[in-house]
Amino acid sequence: MKRRPIMTLICLLLGLEVVAFVLPGFQRILGLRCVIRGCVPKKILVYGASFRGEIEDAKNYGWELNDKVDFNWKKLLHKKTEEIVRLNGIYKRLLTNAGVKLYEGEGKIVGPNEVEVTQLDGTKLCYSAKHILIATGSRAQRPTIPGQELSITSDEALSLDELPKRAVILGGGYIAVEFASIWNGMGVAVDLFFRKELPLRGFDDEMRAVVARNLEARGINLHPRTTLSELVKTEDGIKVITDHGEELTADVVLFATGRAPNTKRLNLEVVGVELDKMGAVKVDEYSRTNIPSIWAIGDVTNRMNLTPVALMEGTYFAKTVFGGQPSKPDYKDIPCAVFCLPPLSVVGLSEEQATDQAEGDILVFTSTFNPMKNTISGRQEKTIMKLLVDAETDKVLGASMCGPDAPEIMQGIAVALKCGATKAQFDCTVGIHPSAAEEFVTMRSVTRRIAAGNKPKTNL
Ligand code: NDP
Q1: For the segment 283-301, what is each residue's pLDDT rounded down to a tens digit?
Q2: Best residue among 145, 168, 195, 242 to mutate for probing ligand 1, ranked by most atoms within 8 Å of CB
Q3: Which of 62, 91, 284, 296 has its CA 20 to 30 A from that of 331?
Q4: Domain ranges of the chain
């Protein structure tokens, strides 16, 4: 085994003297999950799917679409791959320009300051470093039901050779509702099964109900309080049997049932790095493990599993370790979005969280309206916005929106919340007219007041 001492050994670009390891199978593709098999290709598919609604909406705007409109999945797939390859070229250049050496192989930690890498040809290399950063992310997990091997995860769903005619999706989280919208937009018949009354557990209940209504109105068959018991291969496709004994057949079954931290083959138990009961690496608020030279960021720590959050954790790690300035990531008021059609975006507390956490009363402001575009297109799909305000301090504690452009609008609202904006400051902000966003600064009347300790009254 060759030994190569280097000063710093981490597996993420941080603009310092670093060495990055990528797993075999990634074929020297960088940027990893978000760029290759996550947010970026997913968003490209969401754009692709959204044209169906745009084409429908165009008719009342005078567009004559006489010829049959066809969707070419293979063409989109090809364009998506081209874009991913382009982005990976950029990542590669960034790393090279920052002086990063990249080794392809499977890494494991063999000591507090040592990593062993098995290269593709089987040769093992050993590196020593002052600091090791674990950033190995997470991988999709599937329920162990009979026939589960017939299902796919989002990894495969992003690059299917053929677009299915019928798709079954299990799960009610981000990936499930996003893929339901993607496939529905592309003309696939979609059946979505989830365990709860509504999808998107953890989000504001009222918003969850709006998302469910919109998915259904766009033609997705929702099966709440239902899970799958068995998958069986048949001549006609995959037979899906539910826990209620119902059966249906699909061409593709997607399991979008969460992700587990990628810690299994890293040898962490031997080195003594502590894991929690989910298998996530336990870290302190600076992202340091119980072994002082080993750090971890991103999904592998299972804190808040979002790409920009991992980026924040990486930035603060770099400041702490190399910037001489110990810095803790701040998890308050992190905005996020679910890219279903139309999208949902939120920042701060949901109504349920605000009521649970606040000591005083909560004022709920809501606005439900027909987006201006729909007045002509005729689309029956309302936009809904919500602000939650602390009745005593007037601080805005949470904001949410389900409607076109919600993520673009919410990013700006997130800045206001981060600055501790009050409702009075929202009210004295002049709107941009005519826009949907202006509703956020013109919600004058309280929809309801929730007395301290009372549960929200959304009847869900
Ligand atoms: P989520 O954790 O969001 O949702 C998992 C879903 O699977 C839940 O609805 C859960 O149901 C359900 N589930 C879990 N186990 C079972 C089971 N045995 N049977 C039936 N249903 C089950 O995970 P996703 O896979 O959707 O996404 C993975 C991660 O990727 C998330 O952490 C998310 O943050 C991230 N992501 C972010 C995106 C974004 O920012 N837009 C987009 C895509 C992914 P229940 O609620 O009943 O527990």
Answers
A1: 999 999 999 999 999 999 9
A2: 195
A3: 91
A4: 2-140+260-322, 148-257, 336-447
